[in-house]
Amino acid sequence: MIRGGGHAGALRFLLTKTVKFILVLATTLLGLIAVTFFIGRVVPIDPVLAIVGDRAPPHVYERARQELGLDRPLAEQFVIYVKKAVTGDFGNSVLTTNPVMTDIMNTFPATLELATLGTLIGVFVGVPLGVLAAVRRGSWIDQLVRLLGLVGYSVPIFWLGLMGLLLFYAKLGWVEGPGRLDVTYSYLYTPVTGVVLIDTLMQGQMDAFWNAVSHVALPACLLGYFSLAYISRMTRSFMLNELAQEYVIAARVKGLSEIRVIWRHALRNAAVPLVTVIALSYANLLEGSVLTETVFAWPGLGQYITNSLQNADMNAVLGGTLIIGTVFVLLNLLSDLLYHLLDPRTRR
Fold first, then answer.
1. Residue 16 has pLDDT above 90, yes or no
2. What is the pTM (predicted TM-score) of this model?
3. CA atoms of 128 and 123, how far apart (whole Å)
4. HEC string of 218-254?
5. CATH value of 110-347 in 1.10.760.10, 3.40.50.360, 1.10.3720.10, 3.40.50.2300
6. Which member of 136, 208, 273, 317 has the lowest number of beta carbons within 10 Å of its beta carbon?
7. Is the pLDDT of residue 255 over 90?
8. Where does the sequence pass through the membrane (predicted)?
9. How far is CA 314 from the centre of its chain?
């Protein structure tokens, strides 16, 4: 009876958490859709003029306005907008004449590729540096790691990008310049996933693969440095807190090696809140790589939104903003879920 009650309680807990997760997700996404909708109505940009031009006759202007549904009440416009947004219909782009969702599907993999590589660099370099800084607190290593983090937070990333291009591309020639792939290699493979590194590697086009690596190396390292600055600082803070706990002192008294105490015990407990930090850092790179994509002419979603905004293409701007916001919300909720899975205390 106790065992059955325990299973029933666990099932009830899981069901409650799932329902809460779905409700929070639906409410957050509805709020995000509402924000993007009203932003599109508040900004001083007329979407009708962006389509027909400022020299169009009045009857052409009115006809386009009716086709867009802008002559209807605001509440009705919002309901229509929500229905279309839920199905992925953001209208057509004025700039490319394609459906906005098609453009997003073509550009988002480039942003995903760049942000993922930057996050991996930030994790695999930032976490060990943060641990080392915490263990050697007050030493020159600690000061150096903190200085690296301070510079990564203070220096504008577009300036680092320009300096990186000047030094490593123009002067030293260690990497390729702006763009994602040289034109020579762009026809040697068939896009499947949209991620050039994966597609070229899967199809055995090694020359195109290494050319893509040379293109992505510099912008990925810059985003990785930006991510590293945040992750290393938070890792140091979490590790300092864990190293001061009684279980660490007890482990040392028992004679465990320092490496085991630090990496198997302290870091394992620090990894629980660190998961949230990494997820948020990843989300920030996905939404904040606009300047990097602009400097390196990277054909990602950030550059797509920037070009659309400059050409008053509000369908594309709002659609791209909504997708980025949705990804940010999902990553945030996923980090909360992982936090509950990794830390049994939160499930009590």
1. no
2. 0.82
3. 8
4. HHHHHHHHHHHHHHHHHHHHHHHHHHCCHHHHHHHHC
5. 1.10.3720.10
6. 136
7. no
8. 21-39, 114-135, 147-170, 208-231, 266-285, 316-339
9. 22
